[in-house]
Structures
1.
Amino acid sequence: MSKLPTTSTETSTRLDLHRVLDALPDAVATAMQAVFPDQYTPELAEQIARDARARLIEAHPTTAGVRGSEWMARWGCPPWCITDHTDALSPDWHTSAPVETAMRNIDSAHTDDENAQLPWLAAKTVVINDKPQAYGRETRLWLDFGTATAELSPAEGRVVLDALRRFTADFEAVVEHAERTAEDDFEGDPEIARLDREAEDRRIAARTAELAAEADALLAGERR
């Protein structure tokens, strides 16, 4: 199965977005009564919930929340699918809204601007059910790490999750070791660094001249 390029969303969202939308009114009312009891009114809470719902739907237009049962039946969409199947370039499979880290990509091979375009880690559920009577139905988990993607079965995803949990403790030990080691770090002398670069430039220039002279001598000998 190939993966077409996708655009990362700016907001992490639970896979079952329609459940979040359904829970919004009660959640907003409860939060307002706890935090802003003097400002709470049912009408204001409802208005805030409607605004939040509209923003979530705009960011992640789910099949169930926006397009309805007819759309789902036509394209075979699960309720959480956010794929616009009417787009000529859209895939045949179905994708959930991704969950992703707030931290952006940290690849040293890319510029800061390039890294800012991608989350460090992102994951989503994918279902392939085109002509299921012939080819069946397959659920996959796509785990993005920067520009790379792992296409996993749910069981493989569980293995990766367990590995991440174990790695976190080990990585914390490495970070603590690096912090202790960094206590001996210091800035160099800019003037000494300048002189070193100039000396290196002279060495390279001299060696380049030597190689050019050797090449000229070889060419002259071949002509004779």
2.
Amino acid sequence: MSQQRPPGSVPNIWASAERPAFRKSFALELDDHLAILHASRQLLPTGLTVGAVGLVALFVSLFTNFDKLQAGDVVTFIVYEATTIGACTALTYLLLKPARQFLRSMYRRRLAKAGVIGKPVESTVDTNGISYTVLGQTVTCTWDSLYALEEDEGTFHFWMSKLASHPWPSRVFSSEEERQDFRDSVLKWSGRPFSAPVLARLGAAGRANLGTDGGRDKS
């Protein structure tokens, strides 16, 4: 009797001598797209955002209270500076969560309108390279045509150019053993390993500023 697979689970198909390929069915969600569009999946990182607002508050307060410093009222100047910076950074920290939720909803609507979120992807990695089908369109890339191979927090990125990546999210693998088998197979088939996430960590804006060969895997 064949074993029933739980509804919604990812098919677990491993490469073998009889079937020299990995095939997965999955859908790209918001965080998958954010990982490619931005240098971080976390929109508005806490330290960077609060620090930036604090720096802006410092310069604004210096400009608006410089007359007190010129008049020699140093104590009042310092109190105004500290109060302004403290109030702005505290307010920013309190508003981070709703601001992140707003940005995520904005991105989700934009991606849904473009029809690229939550759509089934049928993807195959084998001796010839990668191919995937989404919305009735199939894209095929041979190993020598790929711009780079990267791994970022368990997600494998097949870069077709410095801007476009076809990711295999970490969740499609059922175990670390399967993930390692995948790494070994790609190394055997392509002749190059997955490298550190250089392109993945740059974000779309950073990759757009790269030179012609910037970030290309030359191994």
3.
Amino acid sequence: MKNCMYKTFLKSFILFGIIVNGCKQENQSYSKKNEVIIKLDDSTKVSSIAEKKDSIHVKKEISFDIIHSFKEDASEKSYICFDTRLTYKTDNSFMLTKKDFGITDVDLSGTNYEGPGFSIYSYESSMNKDIEIIIIEALADIGTNWYYLIILNKNDLVDKFYIKEPRSNSEITQIKDFLSIFLSNGTLVFKFKKDKIAKYSTASPDLKSDLKYVYVEKKLNL
């Protein structure tokens, strides 16, 4: 009788041990699965953050890839591009208006310019419609004399300044083939193609350059 009870107790103890060991292994397996899932989730989050950072970095640089020419209206003594107008005040000064709203005077008299006239362009970006860059190209008897730039943010004047070098020969080179403009981290970058620079133009050695381009940079307060 005692022997029978002992055998029954031993079988129960062994069975209990098997069940406990099985539960322990199952818990360890579940823990490892959880660990893998957590690691995968963390990896996904890191990847997602990296993608967002890359996306933000890409958006920081915009290209001014839309170029329009102003048309001269002699009867109005103006150069006009859509709703933007430069109207002569004197031979070397203009009033800049947009949708008939006065933005700024453009005084070019300091250059003592006596050339044949101007070609005027509007650079805009398909990525940012707010900013417009107006370029006044002063024509010379041969080629180009200088460039005057007006930077607008919607209807607000941001800046205006000259770029005197480098220059192209406007008689044989269109501005779109010579000049590309980018905005990167609040700095305008003007890229002038080296093989289009006129023979009479000399770029400052202080300017950045590479094999193909000379760079002029202008920090903006946008």
4.
Amino acid sequence: MMKLPAVLVVLAVLLAKPAAVAQRFEGVWYGLGQYGLLELAIDHDSLRIRQVDVGQPTLSLAARYKHGARLPIAQVVALGERHLLIVRQGVDSLRYSGIVLFDYVPGHHFQLAWNAPDTLARSPQALARLQAQDRRVLFGDYYYSARFINELQRLRPIDEMTKPEFERYFARYADKVRQATRRFEANEPNYRYVFASQLPGYNFALATQALLEEGFCPLYDEYAVQALYRRFYSRKALDKKVKAILGN
């Protein structure tokens, strides 16, 4: 009898049990986008993503939504510590693409990878095999449960931040940027192209993470965060600080 490669044996077991994996992610999750809060709703056969306007740190999760998108889920596959949401590309298409989730903490958060392989395949099985072979270090944006978002709203607003607190926040943010840059350059073959294309959004994600770790509410858009910087520094002084982070 022909012996199957180990990766195919693992995939055969995983693909036979999609429902249990899918249930882990069913629900509504929120990501901190540059221009508002992103809502990602996952159920057993589809995911929907849309943007929520965020004007103030106090947010109603029943707020008016901007135009969103719905994608049909064909399968959810566990690949070690990663989870692959396989979606169909169009109603009549036989092509499939994947959304990779990692760093999953039940009921709290996961990260949605933005440097996972951007691959199309003719079947869920073929796509899962391709993704299972990928060994790159993943980078992503955080998505939080609705319960955690409610907890975030109870943190201090950024308009209470003093200059010493801003300096501590900025030092933490700068350290995150340096670490991410070194780690990405060491692990991503297409470093300059991929990182440059994602840098504005990823920098914002790192900034909101630093706000959270310093005890401040991170539920702001990019304009509010920029206003925070301008409260303490002129444009020229701020440019100098940013260049120092990037080593320019």
